Amino acid sequence: MRLGAIADDVTGACDLAGRVAEAGLPTTVLLPAPPAPGHPSPTTEHHEDVFAGGDDASACAVVALKVRTAPVGQAVDEATAAAQLLLDAGASLLYQKYCSTFDSTPAGNIGPIADALVALAGADGTVGTPATPGARRTQYEGILFADGVPLAESPMRDHPLTPMRDSSVVRLLAAQTAAPVSLVPWEAVQRGAAEVASAIGAGHTLVDALTEGDLDVIAAAILSAPRPVVAAGGAGVGTALARAAVAASGQRVDISRSQLPEVPVTGRLLLAGSASAATRAQTAAFAGERHTLDPLALATDDRALDRLRDALAARADHREPVLIGSAPEVARAQAELGAERAAALIEGALAELAAFAVHELGYSHLLVAGGETSGAVTARLGVQRLLVGQQVAPGVPWAVARSGEREIALLLKSGNFGGPGLFTDAWEVAP
Ligand SMILES: Nc1ncnc2c1ncn2[C@@H]1O[C@H](COP(=O)(O)OP(=O)(O)O)[C@@H](O)[C@H]1O
Ligand SMILES: O=C(O)[C@@H](O)C(=O)COP(=O)(O)O
């Protein structure tokens, strides 16, 4: 199987890639250059580089986009271009990777992207679930649970860009697409893949899942579906598909042995743009030097960013990790600037500080918290491919990339993932 995944944000791509690689499937992560005005992303033109391994080897290629909160038209254009690249490179199954907490708005972009991929693939519809039990995301009777509570009662209800105020993924998706949205309940999953496959219809099929075993049933149903489908979901479904491919081929790559190239430590920088509870806890637990980015200051003081550059440049030892995080107070900045402008100010500042650290100060290791944030940073650094290594936490792998002439190590962390000590512990296993 050649699994071609289109991820709506960069940390989601890394989450999927880390878990799929650990399942034993050779995995590549591609980041298209930012789209030129009026044109979808010119994804990489080297098709032979898309999938690792020989033509008949099972593999996974993930195209990491930054379209989760982009205008719908741009999201559809970029996802379609990425899917076409994957199909041209031999993808046998497309996979729409979206967030395990279904991060989206009533406008999209999960639904519009799903519709576009179905049309491109000539499929009947999508099949999958956001459920990712390894990240404590489960779905029962169409209700999505995050860390054991319904989505709309979790901290995701206060996400700065995609506040999730309904826990029903059926209702959330139905608001984003004109295609039929159907649910396969957990009891049907317990009766096996054939029953799930028989329940797959036109449009978008969301399947309940509480365990990894349920995901394996869903993967088997997708692979045995009577008509072409597009797989879709959080990282859980993709990882189950990878398990199935490894079991079928008998070929398993041991990620723990495929060491990433060593990157000499010349500077360590933490950039936390996520406002999630997990990232706030990691920030609070970090004992090193820290600086705070306030979008209101960025909007009114044109020296604010220069002062942060000066602070970085003045550091005595760049190898000691330093944290630059967004201000905890979100509501006031959004009230005064609007959510989009406040977000863009922070993302832009963190991206500029990343470029300054890497290319002016020679920093080698960056830990970035947040999907939108990671998309802004990798685009500004011109990163187009990630070599993914071992995970420091489920769904959080170190990677090595090129930025210009520099080889750097990146940990692009989903906002919700990782324990409180991650900002300190992650450096111990860095490439
Ligand atoms: N204090 C703040 N005010 C306004 N927006 C903020 C603030 N802090 C973070 N943000 C924005 O919230 C968004 C968080 O999204 P993201 O980086 O994807 O994190 P997550 O992985 O938690 O979803 C980013 O666009 C970031 O710039
Ligand atoms: O599925 C998930 O939860 C992650 O892979 C994911 O999508 C992370 O997105 P961010 O929360 O924006 O980091």
UniProtKB/TrEMBL annotation:
EC category: transferase
Entry EC no(s): 2.7.1.217
Keyword Membrane belongs to the record: no
InterPro entries: 4-carb_acid_sugar_kinase_N (IPR010737), 4-carb_acid_sugar_kinase_N_sf (IPR037051), NBD_C (IPR031475), NBD_C_sf (IPR042213), OtnK (IPR050007)
Keyword terms, alphabetized: ATP-binding, Carbohydrate metabolism, Kinase, Nucleotide-binding, Transferase
Keyword Electron transport: no
Record-annotated membrane-spanning stretches: none
Domain Four-carbon acid sugar kinase N-terminal span(s) in chain numbering: 3-241
One GO MF term attached to the UniProt entry: kinase activity
Catalytic reaction list: 3-dehydro-L-erythronate + ATP = 3-dehydro-4-O-phospho-L-erythronate + ADP + H(+); 3-dehydro-D-erythronate + ATP = 3-dehydro-4-O-phospho-D-erythronate + ADP + H(+)
Sequence ranges assigned to domain Four-carbon acid sugar kinase nucleotide binding in this UniProt record: 269-422
Role, per record: Catalyzes the ATP-dependent phosphorylation of 3-oxo-tetronate to 3-oxo-tetronate 4-phosphate.
Stated family: Belongs to the four-carbon acid sugar kinase family.
Record's protein name: 3-oxo-tetronate kinase
